[in-house]
Design goal:
Layout lengths: L14 E4 L5 H9 L5 E6 H4 L12 E6 L5 H14 L3 E6 L1 H13 L6 H4 L1 E2 L8 E6 L11 E6 L4 E6 L7 E4 L9 H19 L6 H23 L4 H18 L6 H13 L3 H16 L4 H10 L8 H13 L17 H9 L2 H4 L8 H11 L1
The structure holds nicotinamide-adenine-dinucleotide and fe (ii) ion.
Length: about 375
């Protein structure tokens, strides 16, 4: 475990604009840097409202970002960017669009291949400006240095981490999220919560990040139910947008642990959306980790307004109920995961050492399998 004297490097976007109506900062920034050829990387939903950004010059849109983007999707976006020769890349959407925007920004100018930059700090530089505008409250990708793409051949998520993928400006306008459907609101909200909780209880947890982590959990506890019940509740949407941003602050210097590692095969092998996968796994890893990090787990339960008993099975039941009451389907069988794949999923999750090595408690392959079986 770390303490206040452990060195930590904290990287943030140069500018963060937060609050209702801050979308106007997009045009202001683009004008200020003299952008003439902005390229917006977006999903289908957000591509239809790019005009709201009021960008100057000849605006190109790649509106074909798939949820949980894969390598062919990235290659398509990079090809369009190389042809358009943009001077500003704008990620406009959820984590899928923002992750692709990061990669396009560092791949569109040179001849560098994606395979050469997988891993940590393998990118040599970036020569186009980068703006990130989240439209879901979940990933916190706008604040971070990582991007994730699925390799269809190995069915693994490949992670690229680079300081050059950090945005010049992140614009977090909660009003952009009022249209997010109920089930996406619920799942992405638990993703933000999982970023905060996993960083808070990580072996690498740090006091300089803990305050964002626990406040992020408190904001989810206070506002997620409200935003699910009424998508137009602007106060709740703003609270969740802040929780998501704080989750993003947790990801860079500390990052996630077992929750995300155990969740990944659900997405890569069975196309379950990232937030939903994290929500299904969240109660299992939280309860498993509790004996190793009981004071912090109790603080999380308190932040969520749940029963604070120092009993893993009670913590499991309380957090499971929290997710299920949001309308989240918590059973792998109901989500289309075949029983005979659980073993391979456990092998794959157990191999994600970059996350599992920081989990507060060692988690064996068979313990992961047991979690999948319980969740089935
Ligand atoms: N970079 C990171 O640190 C990080 C962290 C967590 C997750 N991720 C990645 O982010 C991706 C998931 O992102 P996500 O959960 O935001 O989902 P997403 O970006 O895939 O979006 C989910 C769906 O919501 C729609 N949508 C987005 N905004 C909307 C709006 N305002 N109104 C209506 N519909 C809207 C999209 O079109 C899409 O169909 C995954 O690939 C995951 O691996 C990255
Ligand atoms: Fe996540």
């Amino acid at each position: 475990m770390t303490n206040s004297f452990t060195p930590i490097e904290i990287l943030r976007p140069t500018v963060v604009e937060f609050g209702c109506g801050t979308i106007v900062a997009a045009a202001r920034f683009a004008e200020r840097i003299g952008a003439r050829r902005p390229l917006v990387i977006s999903d289908l939903f957000n591509a239809r409202r790019v005009d709201q950004l009021g960008l100057p010059g000849v605006v190109k849109v790649f509106g074909d970002v798939k949820p949980e983007p894969d390598l062919p999707n990235l290659e398509k976006a990079v090809a369009i960017a190389r042809e358009a020769a943009p001077d500003l890349i704008v990620g406009f959407g959820g984590g899928s669009a923002m992750d692709l925007a990061k990669l396009v920004a560092v791949l569109c100018t040179g001849e560098v291949a994606f395979a050469d930059i997988v891993g940590a700090e393998k990118v040599a530089g970036r020569s186009v400006a980068l703006m990130q505008i989240p439209t879901t409250s979940g990933t916190g990708s706008e604040a971070g240095t990582r991007a994730l793409v699925t390799d269809p051949a190995s069915r693994n998520k490949l992670a690229v981490q680079s300081r050059f993928m950090l945005a010049d400006i992140a614009i977090v306008d909660p009003d952009l999220t009022t249209t997010v459907p109920r089930e996406v609101t619920a799942a992405t909200g638990v993703d933000a919560l999982a970023h905060c909780v996993e960083a808070y209880t990580s072996r690498k947890a740090h006091p300089a990040i803990d305050l964002y982590a626990i406040e992020g959990a408190r904001l989810v506890g206070r506002y997620l139910r409200r935003a699910v019940a009424d998508g137009g509740d602007r106060e709740a949407r703003a609270g969740l947008a802040l929780a998501s941003l704080y989750g993003g602050y947790c990801l860079g210097p500390v990052n996630t642990t077992a929750g995300h590692a155990v969740a990944y095969p659900l997405g890569t092998r069975h196309h379950i959306a990232h937030g939903l996968a994290c929500a299904v796994i969240f109660p299992h890893t939280l309860a498993f980790n509790m004996p190793a990090t009981s004071a912090k787990t109790i603080a999380v339960l308190h932040a969520l307004g749940l029963s604070e008993r120092n009993v893993p099975v009670a913590a499991f039941e309380a957090t499971y109920r929290f997710c299920a009451d949001l309308g989240i389907e918590m059973r792998l069988s109901a989500l289309g995961v075949p029983n005979d794949d659980l073993g391979v999923m456990a092998d794959e999750a157990h191999a994600i050492r970059r996350l599992l090595d920081n989990n507060p408690r060692d988690l064996s392959r068979d313990e992961i399998l047991q979690m999948y079986e319980t969740a089935f």
